[in-house]
Amino acid sequence: MLSGILIFNQKGENLIFRSFRSDCRPRLADIFRIQVISNPQVRSPILTLGSTTFSHVKHENIYLVAVTKSNANAALVFEFLYRLVMLGRSYFGKFDEEAVKNNFVLIYELLDEILDYGYPQNTETDTLKMYITTEGVRSAIANSATDSSRITMQATGALSWRRSDVKYRKNEAFVDVIEDVNLLMSATGTVLRADVNGQIVMRAYLSGTPECKFGLNDRLLFDGDSAGGSSLGGGGGSGGGAITGNRDGTTKATRAAAGSVTLEDCQFHQCVKLGRFDADRIISFVPPDGEFELMRYRATENVNLPFKVHPIVREVGTTKVEYSVAIKANYSSKLFATNVVIRIPTPLNTAKTTERTSQGRAKYEPEQNNIVWKIARFSGGSEYVLTAEATLTSMTHQKAWSRPPLSLSFSLLMFTSSGLLVRYLKVFEKNNYSSVKWVRYMTRAGSYEIRF
Amino acid sequence: MAMSRIRGAFAVPRKGETFELRSGLVSQYAYERKESIQKTIMAMTLGKDVSSLFPDVLKNIATSDLEQKKLVYLYLMNYAKSHPDLCILAVNTFVQDSEDPNPLIRALAIRTMGCIRVDKMVDYMEEPLRKTLRDESPYVRKTAAICVAKLFDLNPAMCLENGFLEMLQDMIGDPNPMVVANSVTALSEIYHAAPETQALKVTTNTLRKLLMALNECTEWGRVTILTTLAEYKTTEVTESEHICERVAPQFQHANPSVVLAAVKVVFLHMKNVKPELASNYLKKMAPPLVTLVSSAPEVQYVALRNIDLLLQKQPEILNKELRVFFCKYNDPPYVKFQKLEIMVRIANDRNVDQLLAELKEYALEVDMDFVRRAVRAIGQVAIKIESASEKCVNTLLDLINTKVNYVVQEAIVVIKDIFRKYPGYEGIIPTLCKCIDELDEPNARAALIWIVGQYAEKISNAGDILAGFVEGFNEEFSQTQLQILTAVVKLFLKRPEKAQGLVQKVLQAATAENDNPDVRDRAYVYWRLLSNTSDPNATKDIVLSEKPPIVTTIHSLPPALLEQLLTELSTLASVYHKPPEQFVGQGRFGADAVQRAAIEEQIQNARENPLAAAAAAAAVTGSAPPPQSQNNVENLLDIDFDGTAPASAQKEPSGGMSGLEGLAGTPVRVESPAAGAPAGSNNLDDLLGVFGDGGGATAPSSSSGGAGADLMNGFAGLDLSGNGTTSPPPGGSQPKKTNEDIMSLF
Fold first, then answer.
1. B-chain residues within 8 Å CB-CB of A156?
2. Where does the UniProt annotation place the signal sequence (chain B) (predicted)?
3. Radius of gyration (Cα) for chain A, nearest Å?
4. Is residue B488 part of a domain?
5. What distance lies between CA A305 and its chain's CA centroid?
6. In this predicted model, what pLDDT tens digit does every residue of A260-315 receive, in sequence order?
C-alpha cells in the first residue's frame, strides 16, 4: 500500500516526510519537487516514474503527496489524502504551511496513528482527539492504563465513533438539511442540468448509547418498491418551519401532508446500518457525539430553482460590452435569501466599467475579470436588474472572448430545492429520556451557472 | 517561544547545529531534551543527515512521556539501518514496552519494532509478537496483525517457522472487526508477495466471517475486505448471489473508495448470478457511480476512469445520465477530458442533440487542448450514430466558419474520418478547400489532401490545389508528403489530362530530392505501377480500390485487456488503463506478460481488420466473432509470432514507454492517460503497423489520418523484410486485400 506520505509547501520545500516502507527513500522528495511542483506542464494528479507513483492533492498552500510502489488502490489513496486534510482542519482550524510547520510533531504522531505499514487505520477525528491532542503534553488519560484501554476499545470497537459514557442534562439533537443546488443553463434559457447535492448534518447531544431512527419524505419509502416508476407531484416547495419533538410521526398523517421526493442516491456516515437501509429504507444509527454528517444525497427530479437569471450581453464592436442582467427570486415572499452574489464575467481586456443596479451594490474586480453584484437580502418574489457597460482597450492581438458562464452564490433558509422534508427523528435509549429535536433547512448555490 | 525555536530549524543550517542538538539531547532538563529531539526530527525531515546523533537520541528512549517516546521511535525507524549495532540497546525498552499495562504503549512498541529493519532486531521480535497477537486489547491485536506482514517482509522463514501465518489466519475469526480487517490486510499482503504461502485462502467459512465483519469495521477495513472478496473466485451461483446481496448495501457508503470497491465486487460476481438479478444490480450501481462524479476532483478522476472501463463492458448502465458528465467551467483539465470521452461513450439517438449542443459550446472555449478534443468528440459521435451524422457535419461547418485556426484544423481532420464512413457529404468540399491556406499542421494538411485526392473527379480545381502543394513538396512533413504523393497519383488516374505534368514532377521530387525512405519507396512503387503498360487497369484497381468504411473512431481496449482491468477496478491500473505489469516493479518486462499483451493487441487488430468482415461486424455488435474468422485470427497469430515476437515485445509498452528505455534503467515516465492520450494512441498505431494487417484503414485513433496509415504500413514492410523469407508476409496471406496502401508495398 502507501509507502510514504510527504507534505510540501508551494516552493517545494519538504515539510513532512514520513515513510512507512523501506522503499520510500528521501530522494523521492526531490523527484517530486522537480517533476511536479516545478513543472507547470503537469496536468494530472497521478504521476508514475519508473515504478514509483506519486498521487497528490493541493490544499491551501501545501501539497499532500502519497508515494506508492505497487498497483495501489487509487481511489483509496486520494480519499485518504482528503481525510488527512479534514483531520488537519479539525485539529488546526486551517491546514496550511503555517499549521504544518507549527505542529509537525503532532502531524507525525497523527500519521503514525492513522497509517500502519501504509494501511489506513482509524481516521475518526473524535476518537483520535481523545489521545492525540494539541496540548503538547499528554493529558492524564492517555497515560493511565485503564483510560487507555477504554480509548483503544473505542478506537477499534464496532462503535468506533462513540464513547459509551456520554452524559447530558438536556438531551438535544439538531438536524441541518443543507442543499447545494447546481444549475447549468444555456444561453437560450433552457436548463441543461439541474440537480441537488444535499447533506444532512446532525449535532447530537444525547446521553448514553441512543439508537436513532430518521425518516424523510423519501418517495421509495412512501410508495414501496413496487411503484418505482410512477411520478408523484414531488415539489414540496418550501420546507416548512422547524418541527420539534415529532416523536411518533404517524405515517398516514404526514404522507398526506407533504409531497415526496425521489432521492437518486444516498450516502451514509459509517454509523448508519446500511443493511437495514438496503432492505427497508429505514435510516437507523447510533450517532457519534457532537457534530457529524449523517448522510449525503442527490436529487435530480423536480428541482426548485430559487433564482431565475436573464442575462443579455451584447458586444458592441470591439470596444464595448453591454450588460443587462435581471434576477428574480422564485420562492415564497415569506422567505429571504442572504448574501446573494452574482459574478458577471467581463472580457480580459476590460479597461473600465460602469454599472447601475436596482438593488445592492456592484463592483468591478479586475483581478477576477468579473463584475460582482452583491445583494445582502433578497426577499421572495422580488426582481432586480443590473445594467452595466464594460469599455475595452483595443489590443493588437485580438482574441475572441470565451464568455465564461455567469455564476451565482446565495444562501436561503427554510427552503429545500429538492423538496426534502424531515418527517421524524426518533431516539431510543435504555434510560428512556425525552429529547428535543430541531430541524433547519438551508439551500445554497453549488455551481449555479448561466451561460450567455 | 518553543514554536519560534522549532521554526528556526527551517532556516539555513548554522554552523555547529549538530553540536547544539547533541548538547540539548544530553541536557539535564527534560524539556530541553524533548525540544532537541523535536529539532532533530525537523532536521531529519529537511533531509539533513543527523544520524550521528543516534546514541544521544537513543538515551532518551526510556521515558514515560508518550509523545517523546514516539519521536524517539520515529528517529529510530529512520536511522536504524545506519547504526544496526546500537539498535540492540533499544531492544530492552521495546520488550518492556510490549508488556506495559497501557495498551497504547504496547501497540506502539510492536508497531515500531516491525519498522526497524535490522536483522538483530528481528531476532528479538518473536516473543513480543506472539504475546501481542494474543493480547486482550483489540487495539494491540490489530497492530500486531500488521506487524506479521512487516516481519514476513524482513524474514519470511522466521515468520513461517513460528506459525505466525496460522495465528493470523485464526484471527480472521476474531470478534473485533478491525482485527479481522487488519489480519486480512496482512495476509493479503503476504499472499501477494509470496503466493506459494497460500496465506489468504478464502473458504466458505472465512467468507462468512468476512461478510460479517464487513458491516462493522472502519471504512478502510471495508475496502480491504471488499478487495479480498473481489479476488475470491467462485463458481457457485448461490455463493455469488450471497456475496452480491451482502455487498450491495455498501454502495451507499460515504467513502468513495468503499463504493468503488463494492462496485468491483458486485461487477465481478455478477457474472455468476441470474441475468435478471444481474441487470438489477447494474441498475443499482448507476446512481452511486454518478454520485462519485461530484466528489473531489482527484477522486472524481479515478472514478471517471473506472466508469470508462465499466462502460466499455456494459455500455448501457449510464444511458440516462448524460447531463452529470457535462463539464463545469472550472473542472481541472484532466477531469474535463475524461468527461468528454464518457459522454461520447454514452451518446445515443435520444441524447445526441443535447450532447452536440454541449460539445459545440466546449469547442468555443479557450483551452486549446480541450477545444480540440471537443471537436474530435463531435466526429466520434457522427461516426457512432448514423442518424446524427448530418447534424454533426453542420456543427462542424459552423465551427469552421468561426475561423479559429486550431478549431478549423481539427474539424478538417474529423471531417475526413466522416467521409471515410458516410458517402454523400461531397457538397461541403468547397467550404473545406477555402480553408486551405490556414492549415499549418501536418495532420490537417494531410487530411485535406486526402479528401482532395479521394474526390478529385468532383473537384474542378483539384489540379490547381495539388499543384500548390507539389510546389512546396520538400518543405512538407513526410506525413503530408506521402499524402500529396498518393493524391496526385489518384488525380492522374482519374483525370490523366490534368495531372500529367504534376505526377512527373512529384515523383521526381519524391525520389530524387527526398531523404525519407518511406516517401522514396512509395514514389518508386507508384512509378513502377504507372509505367506498367501491360494491364492499364491494374494500377487503377490498386490505387482507386473501394475502401471499406471505418467502424468507429472511439478508442476501445482489447477485450482481454478490458477483462483484466475490470478485475483491477479502482487501482492505478484502472486509472492508466494498462496492466499493472507495465508500471510496477516486478515483472515489468516479463516476457510472458508482454507476449500476452501482444497477443491481445493482435486479436483486437484482427477484429478490426476490414477483411475479416464478419469479425468486424462482431466488433460492432459486441458479440464474439464467429468461428470462421477466429481461424483467420489464429492464422495471423502464427504468422506474426514466427519471427516478429521480439520486435513486438520491444514495441509493446506503448504510451511513451519503449522497452529499450526501460531496459537501460532510466526512469520511465508514464504520463497519466488523459494528458498523454494522443501520444499513446499513436504508439498503438505503430504497433498495428508492426503486425502489418493494414489496421490503418480502421485505426482507432482519429488523429492519424490516411497518411498515418500509410506510414504504418511502411513500418510493416520494413519489419517483414527483416524477417527474411521464413514467414510469408501478411499481405500474401490475405490475397483479397484491397487496401491500396498495403498492396503498394509489394
1. 138-139, 142, 176, 178-179
2. none
3. 26
4. yes
5. 20
6. 888 888 888 888 888 888 888 889 998 888 888 999 999 988 899 999 999 999 98
Convert B695-704 to b/e letters by CB count within 10 Å (16 or more is b). Answer: bbbbbbbbbb
Give the integer Cα–Cα distance in Å for A103 and A131. 16
The grid coordinates listed for B125 are 521480535
A361: Cβ contacts below 8 Å, ≥ 6 apart:
A373, A374
Cβ distance A265 to B288 less than 8 Å, yes or no, reads: yes
B685: cell is 498505431
ipTM of the complex model: 0.80
Question: What span, in angstroms and rounded, lies between the C-alpha atoms of A314 and A333?
Answer: 32
Contact yes or no for B70 and A22 at CB 8 A = no
Write the CATH number of the domain with boundaries A174-224+257-303+416-450. 2.60.40.1170
Q: How far apart are CA B729 and CA B199, in angstroms?
A: 49
Cell of B367: 483551452
Residue by residue, DSSP assigns B151-216 as HHHH-HHHHHHTTHHHHHHHGGG-SSHHHHHHHHHHHHHHHHH-GGG------HHHHHHHHHHHTT
List, for residues A5-30, the tens digit of each pLDDT value: 999 999 888 999 998 988 888 788 88
Residue linked to cell 490556414: B438
Residues of A in Cβ contact (< 8 Å) with B5: none
Q: Which among A444, A445, A181 has a CA at the least distance from the CA of A299?
A: A181
d(CA A187, CA A321): 16
pLDDT for res A134: 62
B451 touches B419 (CB < 8 A):
yes
State the fold for domain A4-129. Answer: Beta-Lactamase (3.30.450)
Residue B530 lies in a domain: yes
**Cα separations in angstroms, B572 against A53, A75, A201, B568, B577:** 9, 9, 33, 8, 8
3-state secondary structure of A106: helix
From chain A, pick out residues whose CB is under 8 angstroms from the CB of B65: 137-138
Q: Residue B449's domain spans which residues?
A: 442-544
pTM greater than 0.80: no
Q: Is A174 exposed, middle or buried (0-12, 13-18, 19+ CB in 10 A)?
A: middle
The reply to whether residue A117 touches residue B150, judged by beta carbons under 8 angstroms, is yes
Counted domains in chain B: 1
> Closest approach of chain B CAs to the CA of A306, in angstroms?
20
Direct distance between the N- and C-terminal alpha carbons of chain B, in angstroms, rounded to an integer: 83
C-alpha cell recorded at residue A379? 426577499
Q: How confident is the model at residue B9 (pLDDT cuts 50, 70, 90)?
A: low
What are the sequence ranges of the domains in chain A? 4-129, 174-224+257-303+416-450, 307-413
Residue B221 burial (C-beta neighbours within 10 Å; 0-12, 13-18, 19+) = buried
Q: Are A243 and A254 in contact (CB under 8 A)?
A: no
With cut-offs at 50, 70 and 90, classify the pLDDT of residue A37: confident
- Tens digit of each residue's pLDDT (9 = 90 or more) over B67-85: 888 888 888 888 888 888 8
Q: Are strands A172-185 and A436-450 parallel, antiparallel or unpaired?
A: parallel
- Where does the pLDDT of residue B356 fall: very low under 50, low under 70, confident under 90, or very high at 90 and above? very high
Average pLDDT, stretch A221-227?
Answer: 47
Distance CA B350, CA B368 (A): 29
Q: For residues B225 and B219, is the Cβ–Cβ distance under 8 A?
A: no
Under 8 Å between Cβ of B655 and B578: yes
Q: What is the mean pLDDT of residues B242-268?
A: 93
Domain membership of residue B516 (yes or no) is yes
Given A44, A69, A153, which is nearest B674 (Cβ)?
Answer: A44
Mean pLDDT, to the nearest integer, of A95-120?
90
